[in-house]
Specification:
single chain, 170 residues, mainly alpha
Length: 170
């Protein structure tokens, strides 16, 4: 009796399970994937004037005309919606970068200011630790010099008084 061999389909593993989408390997591919996810322009519809423009109030009419003019300029510049998407994307980026900057920058500035104060105090302390022994040494030297001068003056005075009494030094 021959052993039962399974059909070839059972031998091979399902290759679709092993093929997961690979992540891009360089920064250009990363940027393309990122922009592909977030860049989704929508085609604009041509702007239309409000049919009830004549019935709008004095303040509403200029606002409607301004709205129509801006939309017409936007449609003229970018009918496929790329300009609007570009502005939306840049506003998102500004918010994503601006909020952390507004929250983190003051804290970092405060920390750096405190570090600057601490460094200044440390430098002053080190300077004082170096200058104190030098100034103490200078004071000791001045006092020693003053004592030497006074002692020398007294010795000279003593010798001069001895020479007056005994001019020949006997």
């Amino acid at each position: 009796m021959m052993p039962h061999n399974p059909p070839p389909d059972e031998w091979e593993e399902d290759s679709s399970l092993d093929q997961s989408p690979q992540r891009p390997k360089n920064w250009v591919s990363n940027c393309r994937v990122f922009f592909g996810k977030h860049w989704q322009p929508k085609t604009l519809t041509p702007p239309k004037v409000d049919p009830q423009l004549q019935e709008l109030s004095f303040a509403e009419r200029p606002a409607e005309v301004l709205r129509y003019t801006v939309r017409k300029a936007e449609f003229w510049l970018s009918p496929k919606g790329h300009l609007r998407e570009w502005l939306r994307f840049n506003i998102k980026a500004a918010v994503l970068l601006g909020i952390p900057a507004l929250l983190v920058v003051p804290l970092v500035t405060f920390a750096l200011g405190q570090f600057n104060t601490w460094t200044t105090l440390l430098a002053q302390t080190t300077s004082n630790m170096v200058l104190f022994p030098m100034s103490a040494l200078l004071v000791v030297g001045l006092i020693s010099g003053l004592i030497y001068i006074v002692k020398s003056a007294m010795i000279m005075r003593l010798r001069s008084s001895q020479q007056r009494r005994d001019p020949y030094g006997y």
